Amino acid sequence: MGLVxxxxxxxxxxxxxxxxxxGVFKFVDVDPLFVQKVAGRPEDRLPFVGKFxxxxxxxxxxxxxxRFDFDHSDQEKLEDMTMNEIIRAMEERRSIRKxxxxxxKKADLDQIIEAGLYAASAKGKQSxxxxxxxNRELRDKISVDNCRIxxxxxxxxxxYGAPAILIVLADKTWxxxxxxxxxxxxxxxxxxxxxxxxxxxxNRAREEFETEEYKKLLSNWGIKGEWEGIGHCAVGYRDGELxxxxxxxxGRVFYVE
Length: 257
Fold this sequence. Notes:
Layout: E1 2-5, E2 16-19, E3 24-30, H1 32-38, E4 49-57, E5 62-69, H2 75-92, H3 106-117, E6 128-133, H4 136-150, E7 164-171, H5 177-194, E8 198-202, H6 205-208, H7 212-220, E9 227-236
Antiparallel strand pairs: 1-4, 2-3, 3-5, 4-5, 6-7, 7-9, 8-9
Helix pairs in contact: 3-5
């Protein structure tokens, strides 16, 4: 599998660089999310060009090898560019309220879920879990129940047609459960956007999983313990243009120097 890798920023996250002979480098433990993001990017946007081949694909990491020309004088520019891409995703992500019925690729859903699992958590407890619902029948049942809890007309879909629902729950005995679960939700929505998918946070997971019916579902899925629903991350391909952001409200930042 050939790949043009145009920036060290696209694989430096968690990677290790091993120099070989003749100016050839080997990169191991490369985050595949960065590999996917760089494909098809215009070369003139980035200062580095390297042709690589993926020679090992693991469950979560890939390894690349090839010739890489890197100008260390551009290091500061590269670091700025990398940070700007992260911030750009934060600024461009929007809540999507119209989805196509097509199911996202499982590999994309796996990357979104992994991003959620890497969210910060209070005291590092990682108290939140994710239930990925791609079964159409179950997805529609949750939609009906969510609609009923929300008080809408019965033909309204609170998930706006999104085919995949990633439900975040957190340990009910942990005081910081809502904060932990919310960070997981945020990470997953950003990851979805970075992969060209739409997402939206839908509430009422708490009310659903307070019922005996949904507690039984958790038990049937092999999930033991007491859990509080934090939110549903509805994911899919957006149907239409990306919404424009509303102007940011002024007066929300206070510097104390």
